[in-house]
Structure formats: C-alpha cells, structure tokens
Design a protein that fits this description.
This protein is mainly beta. It has one domain: Jelly Rolls, CATH 2.60.120.200. Helix content is about 5%, strand content about 40%. The strands form two sheets. Strands 1, 2, 4, 5, 6, 7, 9, 14, 15, 16 and 18 form an eleven-stranded mixed beta sheet that branches. Strands 3-8-17-10-11-12-13 form a seven-stranded antiparallel beta sheet. A hairpin with a 2-residue loop joins β15 and β16. The protein is globular and about 50 Å long. It starts with 8 loop residues before the first helix and ends with a helix. The N terminus is likely disordered.
Length: about 270
C-alpha cells in the first residue's frame, strides 16, 4: 500500500473500515465535520500550549483544552482569541494540531473556514513535519507549508507559502502568493492544499493561486517529501500581525471552521 505510507494508524483504521467517499479523482480518507458539542475530538486533535511568543513575538497564551478558546458547537469549530490576563499574557487563544493523531502525506486537504476580522489578529491554517517540535528547533530547514494566512490589518488578502532552508521569509525568499477574498471574514471559504512529490498547490474555493514545483535541487529547497501534520490557530500581534497595531476593543475574535477533509487520489489507491 505504497500510496498510504504517509498516513498514521488512525487514518489507516478509517480506510480499512470503509470510511471513504468519492470526489472525482479523490477519495476521502480522514475528516472532522465538527459534529457534537464541547471540546474538539481528542482522537483527532491535541494542543500546542504556552505563551512565550512562539518565535514571532506573539502576545497570546495558547491554552490546553479550554473550551473558551476551542469549542465545537452547531456544526463548527470555534477557535477564539480573548483579551484577558492569563498566566503572564494579556490574550488567550488556541492552537489545535493533528500531531500524533494523524499526519498527512500526498493528497488534498480542504479546510472550510471563516476568518476573524480585527486588526492585530493573525489566523493561520498550516503544516509542519510530524517529527518536528518547537523545542527541537530546526526551522526552517525542516520545512513549513502555509495553506492560509491572513493578517487583520490587510483584510481579505489570503497568503499561501512554502518555507525551507533556502526559501524562507527571514531572507525574503519564501515561495509565496496571495489572492484577494473580500468577504473572507464574513463568509466561509474552502482553503485547499494539494501536494505530491513534484508540486505544492494552494487554492481558495478551487481557484488556484499558488504553485511551487520541485526544482530537484535537494532538501534545502524541497523538504516536503515526508508527512506533515495540520495546525489551526489564531495568533495575536506578532512580527507580522501587529504591523498596524492591535485593536484591543475588537476582541474576542473567532476563526470558525466548518470541516477538515483529507483526500488521496483514487488512481493511486487503486494501484496500491
């Protein structure tokens, strides 16, 4: 089953027991539809926790399974950034990750979301390698894939990027593109990543706007041929998020997520 080599056991379980859904050339093999009420499904999500700036001078404290910051209700996940004193920070938020639950390899990820609107917010839908932790360091050599980033001071501008040792934002060399979605903070849109060994593509509502092809020049430029886990979060402030300051009166702010779905190519599965 070579086409499944980047799925963890949790995703393999779903496949083996018939959790599949056709979508053209794609087969759904993992999803969270955010049904029910309460905290996010602990079999699918865990949390990055802390308030130490996260390498970007961010102001929030990411909490651990705190329903005020991460709640499932009425069919959606709500990640909420709140202005409040917590530990040593003046804001709280949540950073949900699939690390140790499910890591994603080649295929198509779809995340349908509505974004927060306040100046000073920095919501993101992004990916890091399964064998990396913040404490271990190694960024950006390990690779990072940003499916969606949005800063509140630039409303409606959606960014997708890929970072590596040679191509990364601190050098101004990252592979990146933007698309304008004027109602991104008012309506749900589907943020999509397609990835294989040769190319990374990002879409909004199936409109392609970012494509980065493997140049065949080694891991300093293409460290993406390995499994990555998914991250959903709202940062407050930070080197990018606070370029135009922070509107402290606009909080709380929420990123609402309707679903997360991961597909693999039907032809690849059928030949595996």
């Amino acid at each position: 089953m070579k086409n499944l080599k980047y799925l963890t056991l949790s995703a393999l379980f779903l496949i083996q027991f018939g959790f599949t859904h056709d979508k053209g050339n794609w087969v759904l093999v993992w999803s969270d539809e955010f049904d029910g009420n309460g905290l996010p499904n602990e079999s699918k999500w865990t949390y990055d926790v802390g308030g130490f700036g996260w390498g970007n001078k961010e102001l929030q404290y990411y909490t651990d399974a705190r329903i005020e910051n991460a709640e499932v209700s009425n069919g959606t996940l709500k990640i909420t950034a709140i202005r409040e004193d917590f530990e040593t920070n003046s804001y709280t938020s949540a950073r949900l990750v699939t690390r140790s639950k499910c890591d994603f390899g080649y295929g198509r990820l779809e995340i349908r979301a509505k974004l927060p609107s306040a100046v000073g917010t920095w919501p993101a839908i992004w990916m890091m390698p399964q064998d990396w932790t913040f404490e271990d360091g190694g960024w950006p050599s390990v690779g990072e894939i940003d499916i969606m980033e949005h800063v509140g001071w630039e409303p409606g501008v959606i960014h997708a990027s890929a970072h590596s040792e040679d191509y990364q934002w601190q050098k101004g060399t990252q592979k990146t593109a933007t698309i304008r979605i004027p109602d991104a903070t008012e309506a749900f849109h589907t943020y999509v990543l397609e990835r294989d060994e040769n190319v990374i593509r990002a879409y909004v509502d199936d409109q392609l706007y970012f494509e980065y092809k493997n140049e065949g020049l080694g891991v300093t430029k293409w460290p993406y041929n390995k499994p990555f886990y998914l991250i959903l979060n709202i940062a407050v402030g930070g080197a990018w998020g606070s370029v135009e300051g922070i509107d402290e009166t606009a909080f709380p702010q929420t990123m609402e997520v309707d679903f997360v779905r991961f597909y693999q190519e039907k032809a690849a599965r059928d030949s595996g």
